[in-house]
Amino acid sequence: MENSVEKYLQEIAALIQRISENEFNRGYKAGLEAIQQALQHVPPVSTHRLTESKIDFSTNMEKAFGILPRGVSLQMVESIFRAAPSKALSPVQVAALIEDRDGKKMAETTLRRAIEKLENSGTIERIAGTPTWRLNPTGPARLESLG
């Protein structure tokens, strides 16, 4: 009797498995058909433009992503300090002056790195005990000579 009950339970389990697989397959098939129908309404994408055009990243990066070409941000920060040689400026003031003058927003990290490079080169000096910098009167004439 145990054999027949066990066999009956195995048959039920196999039937449930087949039903589950059939339902899954039907659902999968229906989903696949829905995707194929949706794709019929999507226009084909032409990659010709992308592969044939030459992208000049030095001028288009700013337009496309708001990213300044390499070295421009450093020159902008240096020019702000050169425009106010005796005035001590904080990074916030430098960013505000760049935005007012050039209409560009400079990322905090970019500004910090530019200030660090200018300080390391001796172009600007930090005012002791404050978060401000000023043009170093004995520093190099222009940062461009540093390379």
Layout of secondary structure:
Layout (H helix, E strand, L loop, with lengths): L1 H39 L7 H5 L4 H9 L6 H12 L7 H12 L5 H14 L2 E3 L6 E3 L12
Helix pairs in contact: 4-5, 4-6
Notes on the structure:
- With 147 residues, the protein is mainly alpha-helical.
- The protein contains six helices and two strands.
- It has helices spanning 2-40, 48-52, 57-65, 72-83, 91-102, 108-121, and strands at 124-126, 133-135.
- It has a two-stranded antiparallel ribbon with strand order 1-2.
- Strand 1 (124-126) and strand 2 form a beta hairpin.
- Helix 4 crosses helix 5 and helix 4 (72-83) crosses helix 6.
- The longest helix is centred in the N-terminal third of the chain and has 39 residues, at 2-40.
- The chain is elongated and about 100 Å long.
- The mean pLDDT is 76.
Which secondary-structure class do the elements indicate? mainly alpha
Extended strand count: 2
Helix content: 55-70%
Q: What profile does the largest beta sheet have?
A: 2 strands, antiparallel
What's the number of helices? 6
Instruction: Return the average pLDDT rounded to an integer.
Output: 76
Poorly predicted regions are none
Tell me the radius of gyration: 33 Å
Provide the spatial order of strands within the biggest beta sheet: 1-2
Distinctive features:
147 residues, mainly alpha, two-stranded antiparallel sheet
Please summarize what this structure is.
By secondary structure, this protein is mainly alpha-helical. It has helices spanning 2-40, 48-52, 57-65, 72-83, 91-102, 108-121, and strands at 124-126, 133-135. The radius of gyration is 33 Å and the shape is elongated.
